[in-house]
């Protein structure tokens, strides 16, 4: 059901996030955006103190519209889908429980989406581990994030993304449940196959995690490779009714490219592997 009051629904799934969830919530609270928003928190079966921290935040901020949902531990895809199913806003923004937003994030991004009604999904550049000297790209204002480009390059991370909810509902765009690596990229690609996307050049979020995962680095990179290839297979099968198709040759090239990305990730992981800064 659509609401005339809510401009942006903020979806935050969390699992055992007692060390970071309050920091994420405070970054939403400090937004300069003056239109009504709602926060949708989905507890993905946490066993630590994070649910009580969320409830404490809700009590301290009764002026904010906050929905606190629960589910058995099923992964972020199902949690985000649960959030999408209950969202009321014109736009939906996603925030991971261990990341934060710059204060102007929603204001800048919602204004961009309002000024570009053809854009169904937008993201922004971002900082890594609060290092504000590390930027992704120096382009002017924004660049187009289209399907073919995003097959070869990830244009934004989950915590920078804002989508137009009318497009999500019209097409029933959802995250593929049961997929634990690469589910975000597959979600992005399914949207930009049919609608324009954009990446704002200004960094408006901070990602507080190792770039390619903290525990079992090589194992995580191998999983990312497997799921990159799985995404290619899924997209290759999902060509019905879509004007942009992955041809057989491109399909094979993407397999080779995914292996090359794996090598690059191994190299970059050594470069960016830093301790996560405290809350």
From TrEMBL:
Coiled coil: none
Tree of life domain: Bacteria
GO molecular function: hexosyltransferase activity
Membrane-crossing residue ranges in chain numbering: none
Residues annotated as domain Glycosyltransferase 2-like: 9-169
CDD domains per record: Glyco_tranf_GTA_type
A Pfam family reported for this protein in Swiss-Prot or TrEMBL: Glycos_transf_2
PANTHER family: GLYCOSYLTRANSFERASE, UDP-GLCNAC:BETAGAL BETA-1,3-N-ACETYLGLUCOSAMINYLTRANSFERASE-LIKE PROTEIN 1
Family to which this protein belongs: Belongs to the glycosyltransferase 2 family.
The name this protein goes by in its record: Glycosyltransferase 2-like domain-containing protein
Taxonomic lineage of the native organism: Bacteria, Bacillati, Bacillota, Bacilli, Bacillales
């Amino acid at each position: 059901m659509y609401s005339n009051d809510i401009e942006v629904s903020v979806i935050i799934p969390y699992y055992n996030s007692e060390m970071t969830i309050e920091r994420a919530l405070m970054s939403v609270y400090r937004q300069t955006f003056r239109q009504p928003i709602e926060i949708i928190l989905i507890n993905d079966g946490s066993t630590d103190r994070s649910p009580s921290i969320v409830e404490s935040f809700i009590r301290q901020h009764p002026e904010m519209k906050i929905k606190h949902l629960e589910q058995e531990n099923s992964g972020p895809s199902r949690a985000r889908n649960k959030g999408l199913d209950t969202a009321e806003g014109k736009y939906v923004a996603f925030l991971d429980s261990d990341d934060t937003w710059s204060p102007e994030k929603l204001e800048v991004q919602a204004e961009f989406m309002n000024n570009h009604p053809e854009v169904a999904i937008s993201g922004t550049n971002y900082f890594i581990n609060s290092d504000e000297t590390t930027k992704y790209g120096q382009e002017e204002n924004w660049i187009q994030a289209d399907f073919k480009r995003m097959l070869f390059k990830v244009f934004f991370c989950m915590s920078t993304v804002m989508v137009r909810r009318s497009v999500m509902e019209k097409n029933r765009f959802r995250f593929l449940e049961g997929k634990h690596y690469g589910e975000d990229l597959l979600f992005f690609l399914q949207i930009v196959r049919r609608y324009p996307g954009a990446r704002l050049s200004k960094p408006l979020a901070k990602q507080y995690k190792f770039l390619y995962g903290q525990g079992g680095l090589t194992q995580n990179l191998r999983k990312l490779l497997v799921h990159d290839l799985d995404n290619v297979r899924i997209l290759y099968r999902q060509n019905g009714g879509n004007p942009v198709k992955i041809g057989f040759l491109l399909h094979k090239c993407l397999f080779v490219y995914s292996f090359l990305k794996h090598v690059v990730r191994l190299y970059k992981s050594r470069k960016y592997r830093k301790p996560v800064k405290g809350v």
